[in-house]
Specification:
The complex is a heterodimer of chains A (380) and B (449).
Chain A (H helix, E strand, L loop, with lengths): L1 H14 L9 H11 E2 L16 H28 L5 H34 L6 H11 L7 H16 L12 H12 L1 H4 L9 H4 L6 H6 L8 H6 L11 H13 L5 H21 L5 H4 L2 H4 L5 H8 L10 H21 L7 H35 L1
Helix pairs in contact in A: 1-2, 2-4, 3-4, 3-5, 3-12, 4-5, 4-6, 5-7, 6-7, 7-18, 12-16, 13-17, 17-18
Chain B lengths: L1 E6 L12 E6 L5 E4 L9 E3 L6 E2 L4 E5 L6 E3 L4 E8 L5 E8 L18 H11 L5 E4 L3 E2 L8 E5 L10 H4 L4 H11 L6 E6 L14 E7 L6 H8 L8 E4 L1 H13 L5 E7 L7 E6 L4 H5 L8 E5 L6 E3 L11 E6 L5 E2 L56 H9 L3 H7 L10 H6 L6 H15 L2
Parallel strand pairs in B: 1-14, 2-17, 12-13, 12-15, 13-14, 16-20
Antiparallel strand pairs in B: 3-9, 4-6, 5-8, 6-7, 8-9, 10-11, 10-15, 16-17, 18-19, 18-20
Amino acid sequence: MNFLRNQLDKIKPNFEKGGKYEKYGPAFSGFETFLFVPNHTTKTGAHIRDGVDLKRVMITVVLAMVPAMIFGIWNVGYQNMGDGHGFMEYFTFGAIRFLPMVIVSYGVGLGIEFAYAVFRGHEVNEGYLVTGLLIPLIMPIDFPLWMLAVSVFFAVIIGKEAFGGTGMNILNPALVARAFALFAYAPFMSGNEVWVADSVADGVSGETILGALYGGTVPQTSVFDMFMGFIPGSVGETSVLMILIGAAFLLFTGIASWRIMLSCLLGASLMGLIFNTIGSTTNELLNFPWWQHLLVGGFMFGLVFMATDPVTAAQTTKGKWIYGFLIGVFAILIRVVNPTLPEGMMMAILLMNVFAPTIDHYVVEGNVKRRKKRLLKVNA
Amino acid sequence: MSTDIRIKKGLNIKLRGAAALQLSASVRSKIFALDPPDFHGTTPKMEVKEGDKVKVGDVVFHDKANEEIKFVAPVSGEIKEIQRGAKRRILSIRITADTKDSFKDFGAKTPGNLAGPQVKEALLESGCWPMIKQRPYDVIANPSDQPKAIFISAVSTAPLAASHEFALQGREKEFQAGIDALSKLTEGKVHLSVQGIAGSFLNDTQGVVLHKVSGKHPAGNVGVQIANVDPINAGEKVWTVHPQDVASIGSLFLTGQYDPSRVIALAGSQVENPEYYSVIRGAMIEDLVVGKLKEGKNRLISGDPLTGTSVKRKNALGFYHDSITVLPEGDYYTFFGWVPFTGNNKFSVSRTFLSWLAPNKEYELDTNMNGEERAFVITGEMEKVFPMDIYPMQLLKATMIGDIEKMENLGIYEVAPEDFALIDFISSSKIEAQDIIRKGLDLMIKEVG
């Protein structure tokens, strides 16, 4: 550690103001602060500060995704090979396919982040640590790596940097990547062949539950399998149990908003109940029990890891209730009645990302009105 | 008449080194100082020059914008030096103190028998006026204003802050006289917030609306109490006075002399035996801390750890401060310090530390930032420590871009920098909220007045 510190101190002057590589200062500081929390002391304002910083927050979110990720990697192998193999066999099969996606996602994304930091002379922000892992978790496992790279490129440049970087973006960058991929490379992103690795070559049916319902058949998957995640789907989304473990971790550490999670659940349940009550003879999705809607597709993963993204969600307490509730409502609405997509969570979150500032505006406006009314009363 | 104010939001930061409730006399400094930068927004116009003799209460300088507001010598002696900084800005006026003070006589009066303008004149003449501050803007009150109320908070909730209750012991008569005088300055009420400790003389103060305040910090902040009782609207003025200054004002009327005495807490984990000292305003930090500190690189703070000013040994105790806090400096690197659940000797509101397991532990916090400044990312954290009907993050953003209409709409008139001190502390993006608000208030003074 001390050796490392000494080495860093030795080369640091080159990257400081007036140094040889002054321009690359932000990149250097990105690496340095990754290794060491800096020695900065308080200059203005409060003399003592809370121990937490954005790095710690972001890493905590990444940790929360680990259970879903490990299960997902295992499930990639399990879905392809079926019963009768050992844990490591499944896991290795999945890891060989999944790890390259992670490397591409982080490589391209962080590369752009560093380039922008140097270009614009600001510090490297930690936001991409989370986005970089979210993206491979919500893509089909066979998604070609170059397409992944293009999607990440688009998401980081157009979804984030164009708005000013982490903290300023309107849309969740991971979902921007997914939406981009869905529209640009549709055959690789939907249908029955993409959700299980090598499904065509190995002759495994990769039909998802929502896909089956959408096609008009009622799948015979047990609720236990849906909950545990022994079903086809993108890597991170299948196991509700593992996602709930992550959710518990996020709620316990106080990082994710429980209000968004709860209201989203309520919204989706309500919408599911309404559709169940209406019922249909032609659309099986209307008859799919409302509580099973919560277990399948990307609903849980989106609810826990994407709807709660503080930058793109509503920022006021009241706003969070409305925002979460509407995501739930729209996710099921899009799922059930839209004619092209079997899943609606991504679109629901992106839609509400766009409306979050509007929700906040009206919530804050309530406060402003109260203040103005008070003033009128005094002046009267 | 008494009402209760219960504050639910907030945060108590438990720090090691709280001052024990015992009072010692301090060594009398040889040099005292009057520092114009203590009085935010004041441009000093000198009335003495180096070598002049002054008595306690003699005018040293007045405010250029408002000549009535005078600043007086806290000790008798000789003007030793006028220290200037960049652009000849006056930083400090040093006075070599006599061994025994001689006082200028302003004449003892009974405040109850005086009319408002007479009280005002007495306060302006004697140099007591700067003790009265105004909201909005958190600057010295304008004598020509009519405040809608005067608020005094005798509740201290900030970490390591001095107890007003203890500091005012034995000054019951002066405190009451001060209240009597202040009540002549407003047509509204004088509000006094107390902790409501049984048997405290503050509970029996006459001529005030008494509020019993309970809750976590910032419940003791006068701004939080104003927001709770009678929020400030655009165009309104509320005056606030520090409880010890109320006693000083009372003392002026009872004795006819300017009272520069102050009881301060010397606290913090780097202090050997934290306790209270009776001192004189403008005393040198060096004389107050010498021989009382632990070894190590220390941060000396005039004031409390959240709102105080960083000082050197040759600086003076701040005019408005009633404590000196000494904390360890935190200029060290932490290898992989951001890994969750490590570094548990640090205090955090988030549960990414295990410190929440020991809620009653007293922490030895240093001045490390524990990270770097970033854009706003996490939402909802500020609201937890901000007990006013204001959206703090939205107000901060409006203030950062200097959008005056938005600032007004979001409640800039109701806040002072100290109300944002806990936001400085908890912000995971390390936002300098107090600094932003101070600059915002200065902008409002310039643009709106």
